[in-house]
Amino acid sequence: MKWLITGGAGFVGSHLADLLVAKGESIVAIDDLSTGSTENIAHLRASKQFRFIPDDVTNTFLLRELVDEADVIVHLAAAVGVRLVVEEPVRTITTNVGATELVLKTAAKKGKRVFIASTSEVYGKGVRVPFNEEDDVVYGPSTKARWSYAASKLIDEFLGLSYWKERGLPVVVGRLFNTVGPRQTGRYGMVIPRFVRQALANEPITVYGDGTQSRCFAHVADVVGAIHSLCVAKETVGRVFNIGGTEEVTIVDLARKIREATRSKSELCFVPYEKAYEEGFEDIVRRVPDLSRIHAAIGYSPSRPLEEIIRDVVAHERAVASGSAPLAAVG
Ligand code: UDP
What we know:
The protein is of the alpha/beta class. It is built from eleven helices and 14 strands.
């Protein structure tokens, strides 16, 4: 099969490309390199199955050509990371809504299958855990930039599902929960690469708030396996699926685990949210996915524990620090 990955030089996109190459598939990756990096795909450039195009998905003519050639489009290109969202809400909204609209419109002309990457952010500040795909969503006011990310991704979901309902376009939506692994940059706020870098440098580990907020992290290798299965299974079309991990951990415990795994001398440093992000920032207290739907549909259960996630990120960050980053496939 021929796959088009938008955001193919990003963290998740590059791991998906690794998986597809290993499966003997043919891949075209498009990425404007705004948050992705050619380093993520450097090891793939020699592969005849892989082609990289450094361009923007909103290049309409190019996109039409690429969609024509593809059997499946995995749309990952998006503005992600809470820090980026808070600092650049215009870019977040326009990138997330505009690019998805164009991808769906172009795919609809040829009836191509599309995977839309959404996010657990769409659950907003709902407090009923675990988060189920049919749950109501609760957001803060539009004066708080954080919620623009959730709203923009929810629009992407509505649009994708509407293309399915109205035009029969085979669309599947995956809501990614805290996905982690080698190559993820801490630049946009993601907690594990940040903590690992701080720990390796014996610098203070910056725990935001009181650290009692919790997350379930998923290894990127598990996540891209789920994306692949959702794209090839027939009965997933027109539906929304959570993709994530099951091991809930508080952020302060995560900091301690990372300090231990790196044998670091770092202190834990508690940073108030308004200093870390912006005045009035609201964090999600518990973020736990209900994985029963995806398990029933494709048999997905995450297989890599938090310990392994931390170990892989530490190995990657050590290699980056020593200038020998092994960017090859994991898992
Ligand atoms: N976080 C933290 N220190 C950091 C970066 C993040 O304590 O240096 C916290 C953040 O406030 C959140 C959790 O770690 O509660 C996960 O943050 P991340 O940005 O990775 O993902 P989110 O779940 O917020 O999308």
